[in-house]
Amino acid sequence: MSEAIRHLSDYDTSNRYRAELVSSERITPESAPDEVRELVLEIDRADFDYEIGQAIGVLAPGDPAFGHEHHFRLYSVADLPTRGPSGRPRIKICVRRCNYVDEYSGEEYKGVASNYLCDLRVGDSFPVTGPFGLAFEVPEELDANLILIGSGTGIAPFRAFVKHIYENVPEWRGRIWLFHGARSGLEMLYQNEEVDDFAQYYDRESFEAFRALSPRPAWDAPIAWDAPIRERASELWALLGHPLTTVYVAGLEKMLGELDAVFADVAGSPQKWERRKAELMAGKRWVELVY
218 pLDDT exceeds 60? Predict the structure, then answer.
């Protein structure tokens, strides 16, 4: 899930340990078209060393007919680690039950890892590996600005990141802008009628959350990033030019092109945006955690 590592085959999964399912809760309303579940896992590794923004690798059962012992997928950790009564670390991951339609045959297939995880029962265990990926770093300057942009379950690491700042960095003074993209309001994870964790930060002057929804939620339409971004284009462009602003982007890789198009409009031209983004990336102030 880092800029340097794009393919799952690049990850070293040889260091494995067991995870036991402690709880599984649906966090999208029953009326939502997508089922997203939050799973609490207890890791059988006392020294599990996780940093905010990283992901854990899940090794679901593979298809022996194709020579696959395991089906490997990555899931961002969605909360600060805790410890259970046994003293072992516990983490939360956010899983969307996925089904895919073959573009040639038209047949629908179940996503292997997501359906396996969503169907697990409390007490079940399975192999995991990691953690992997870049960590979200809190800037040293406590008046720095953070722009967090996540689509779908890409909001999960930001939930942990924002919680970490407000619980463990009480002197934080910088602005935090969170942009979350989804097909509909029902799928705004941790900002819907089932679970609204981000509501606890709404009364803080430093925190603001903005929604980017699809104009046609029943279709496979792209997320309308342009609406919330263009509405505050002037202030956002000023923040992007500030030397103490860092941008974190998390979610599906396809969102990068969508964001580039919108920010090019905000900048006034694609060339101007390319220069600004290059400056941010060179200063390690634009970080993409995509899959």
Answer: no
